[in-house]
Amino acid sequence: MTYRKIDTQIWYDPWFQKLSLKGQHFFIYLWTNRHCNQAGLYEISLRTIEFDTGYKTTSKLLEELQPKVYHFKEDNIIWIKNFFKYQCQNGSFASGAIKAIQDYPVKYVATFIEYNRKYLDQFDTVQTPCIDGVNMVVPLEILFEHHVDTVKTPETPEQNRTDKKQIQSVFSESEKQAQEIYSFYNEEIKPINKSRQRCLTNLSFHLKGNSIENLKAAIKNYKPMALERDSAYRKDPANFFGRNEPYFKDFLPDNFQGEPEAEDLWANL
């Protein structure tokens, strides 16, 4: 049996209070019916909805629930936009949500991930769709960017296989570059704390705007300072390449000024 949480404050939410009685009932049905998965993005036909609820005006009720709920009629897909936000409490649930929608058209997967990015980013990894039989942990940014910019919804089995090979190629190259920098950092800095997956995810984001050479140069510039400290106090690579506080940027070739000599410090006093 599956359990879903509903915040008791929903009854005091201005948007929910303005719904008709049927609209409120309908929203709770979409939130709790057995077709609803961990993503809150799921396939269900209007005929099934009408059979379950007894309502014959489902199209009008779905319009009433916008923009909190979207109905993609062409694919019989319902998306409750804030469902994942209120349900997800750990990485296992997040991975389950991605797994639940892995076979859906990529435009829905990409939109779901982008919309829930800040909640998914709380966890080091998300188990991504199985492509050509290989389970790969892929940075969310790469998944979203590639789906939106270059992959069209497959129309035939042949096109589907081609798209998967294209995606796998992008994933492999991104992972390879991020892993190379991660290994280089650990070899040069030798920190005690090494948050591998979080670092790889951050690096895949930063690689979109920085070359491998510049990122390695930042590591080399940081090295003299780092080696003066006990290894326990050297930056975890995930923090050095942080998202919210990108520490490495101060050490990029264009930004790094070097450490001032001792006499210069005295001269400025």
Give the biggest sheet: 3 strands, antiparallel
Helix content: 40-55%
Instruction: Kindly state the number of beta strands.
Output: 3
Order of helices and strands: HHEHHEEHHHHHHHHHH
Q: How would you sum up the global shape?
A: elongated
- Tally of helical segments: 14
Structural class: mainly alpha
Poorly predicted sequence stretches spanning 5 or more consecutive residues: 127-155, 167-171, 260-269
Structure description:
- Helices cover 53% and strands 4% of the residues.
- The protein contains 14 helices and 3 strands.
- The chain has helices spanning 14-17, 21-32, 46-53, 58-65, 83-87, 91-100, 106-115, 117-120, 140-150, 157-189, 196-206, 212-227, 237-240, 262-267; strands spanning 41-43, 69-72, 77-80.
- A 3-stranded antiparallel beta sheet has the order 1-3-2.
- Strand 2 and strand 3 form a beta hairpin.
- The relative contact order is 0.07.
- Mean pLDDT is 78; it is low at 127-155, 167-171 and 260-269.
Descriptive terms for the model:
mainly alpha, 3-stranded antiparallel beta sheet, 53% helix
Topology:
Blueprint: H1 14-17, H2 21-32, E1 41-43, H3 46-53, H4 58-65, E2 69-72, E3 77-80, H5 83-87, H6 91-100, H7 106-115, H8 117-120, H9 140-150, H10 157-189, H11 196-206, H12 212-227, H13 237-240, H14 262-267
Antiparallel strand pairs: 1-3, 2-3
Short description:
This protein has 269 residues and is mainly alpha-helical.
